[in-house]
Design goal:
The structure is a single chain. The chain is an alpha+beta fold. It folds into 2 domains: about 1-50, SH3 type barrels, CATH 2.30.30.730; about 50-125, Arc Repressor Mutant, subunit A (Orthogonal Bundle). It is about 25% helix and about 15% strand. It has 4 helices and 7 strands; from the N terminus they run E-E-E-E-E-E-E-H-H-H-H. It has helices at about 60-75, 85-95, 105-120, 130-135, and strands spanning about 5-10, 15-20, 25-30, 35-40, 45, 50-55, 60. It has a 5-stranded antiparallel sheet with strand order 4-3-2-1-5, with no helix packed on it. Helix 2 crosses helix 3. The longest helix is centred in the middle third of the chain and has 16 residues, at about 105-120. The protein is globular, with a radius of gyration of 27 Å.
Length: about 180
């Protein structure tokens, strides 16, 4: 389950898929209605891959919570945002028993269930292979950004080119005065 390209934007409901990057922000596509819109760099964005829920000891990544819901529900529906807070809390405790009850609010739990339903509807919760097998089978990859760029070949026999001001470069210097 790859959630790195899925984001939540503060002040905008729903989840968005990152399409491309612009000079002033991102172009995103809504997962609910498929509309594309710009999101500017002044907006607060959160990748679902980076979100976690308070746990008794350590924080619990959202990815593990969504996987727990998917594995234990196995196709049945999850609580909706219209259900009572008690029903949502008991269902969340069933899926994630080690969450911190004092710091995780019912509104956070509702948001997780709404996100789960949307991601499940769009088929984004399917895993091809388990992460442990994936980590074992992958070889370490080199970062292309850290590699030295290749030097460009320069054609030394070419004629002088015009500069950005429209004047040709010359190799002669004119003498002035007498």
């Amino acid at each position: 389950m790859d959630l790195s390209g899925i984001i939540s934007v503060t002040g905008m409901s729903g989840l968005y898929k990152v399409i491309s990057q612009t000079k002033s922000g991102l172009i995103v596509e809504s997962l609910t209605d498929g509309k594309r819109l710009p999101v500017y760099s002044s907006s607060k964005l959160s990748s679902l891959d980076d979100i976690s829920i308070y746990g008794q000891g350590d924080d619990i990544p959202l990815k593990l919570i969504l996987r727990s819901i998917r594995d234990s529900k196995s196709g049945t529906s999850v609580p909706t945002s219209k259900d009572s807070n008690d029903a949502i809390k008991s269902a969340f405790a069933e899926f994630v028993p080690e969450f911190d009850e004092d710091r995780v609010y019912a509104s956070d739990m509702k948001k997780v269930f709404v996100w789960y339903a949307l991601l499940n509807e769009k088929g984004l919760l399917v895993e091809v292979e388990s992460e442990s097998e994936e980590m074992k089978s992958e070889k370490p990859k080199t970062d292309k950004a850290l590699a030295k760029p290749k030097a460009k070949e320069v054609n030394k026999t070419s004629s002088p080119k015009a500069s950005s001001k429209g004047m040709a470069k010359t190799s002669t210097v004119r003498k002035t005065g007498a």
